[in-house]
């Protein structure tokens, strides 16, 4: 475990890179002993600073939720990141990416919670009983690390590469659709750029919520009512550039359209 | 455009039929038959199917292959192909397929169409297909190749009946009015582990587009496309290998599910 001074120093680096939009070397270059838990400690320190500046935490995002990414990173649980209210953009609008380093877009299912959820092992039924609705979402990722060179402790500290997100389309009760078989087509400038099924996420996107609640429980926390959970990329993350039109279509859940600026 | 005479077509069609019956493979055709065309390959396919029909099988439908961008890129051809389904290829949902019936099988999850009216191209649109469709169903197609090591280009797979092996239809029959085919999501698992995911749009933008392509292609060839035929419209996601003792299952959003088990080899060798 790194000491508080090291965590604070790493939070300076990550917060500085995110605020000032510049790249940094992966954190383990200077702190080879850094663990995934250290990464979460950096995330927590960043959150403390962001909240002190008036930014609001509105939920969580799961990352590394596909089998391919888990194998690539050598993990068997997702990573979790923080969703800040000011990174949410409106559907039908513009997503500002000025200064983002190498933005990519991916499509996924968002859960919005109606009730608090807590405990070490909630079931999918309990997740759904506590869910207000699910909705299509797209996430804009932007790793702050040079040349995409990163490892798990570094990417966790960098808040799971979170940059912007958009929710939209049709809200559904999770029991009115099969959340594991929602087909997703991610189009960029009218071309199908990525094709997926929501079940690519851990077999069922509610598993990301289950695992998030267990992860929060280990840290003595709960998933509060009203939280948004982005359950993780169902599609591959596709590069985007200023001027691109992104459309994500979801079976029986409508679509999200945005312009990248 | 053909390079093969009737005797050569018969010889290659017979060779593939005999490989099928023996559970054996033959070297690819393209290296043995310089300049072989896709039309030659369809003639060889017709001969191979003719042998199956002569042996007592009946034609029950068609399969469309090479529908995804990934497979088209892999074999360097940018339109689909088709093969013929016979009665001997059909298994029930949940059935056990004898592994001896297959050589080097792989599974694909697809949407099957069953027509209520004949379709006659050219000029058939996706809307015509939907209007003529009685129902759609989830379908596992078990593709297989009589060509050694799946070393296929378009001529090899077309001649070998579009690499069709066997298939099973899910039990649920869905009116196409009740489902968004292009956005139907699919997951498939083998022995409880997820091995493929996909979506209807992977098939030519929508599976109905692939069926329209088939109707128009058959129209040009003056081949029938009849009410009641089963049409396998193409893979929603990547194919995955299957072997003896495997259990595979899949679900397609808004359409249904399907499963198969593969038998174990009997110890007679």
From TrEMBL, chain A:
Gene3D superfamilies: Fumarylacetoacetase-like, C-terminal domain (3.90.850.10). InterPro entries: Fumarylacetoacetase-like_C, Fumarylacetoacetase_C_sf, Hydratase-Decarb/MhpD_sf. Keywords: Lyase. It comes from the Bacteria. The keyword Lyase applies. Coiled coil: none annotated. Residues 101-260 form the Fumarylacetoacetase-like C-terminal domain. PANTHER family: 2-KETO-4-PENTENOATE HYDRATASE (PTHR30143:SF0), ACID HYDRATASE (PTHR30143). This is 4-oxalocrotonate decarboxylase.
From TrEMBL, chain B:
One of its GO terms (molecular function) is 4-oxalocrotonate decarboxylase activity. InterPro entries: Fumarylacetoacetase-like_C (IPR011234), Fumarylacetoacetase_C_sf (IPR036663), Hydratase-Decarb/MhpD_sf (IPR050772). It is an enzyme of class 4 (lyase). Keywords: Lyase. The keyword Ribosomal protein does not apply. SUPFAM superfamilies: FAH. It holds the Pfam family FAA_hydrolase. Gene3D superfamilies: Fumarylacetoacetase-like, C-terminal domain. One of its GO terms (cellular component) is cytoplasm. Its EC number is 4.1.1.77. Transmembrane segments: none annotated. This is 2-keto-4-pentenoate hydratase. The lineage of its organism: Bacteria, Pseudomonadati, Pseudomonadota, Alphaproteobacteria, Sphingomonadales.
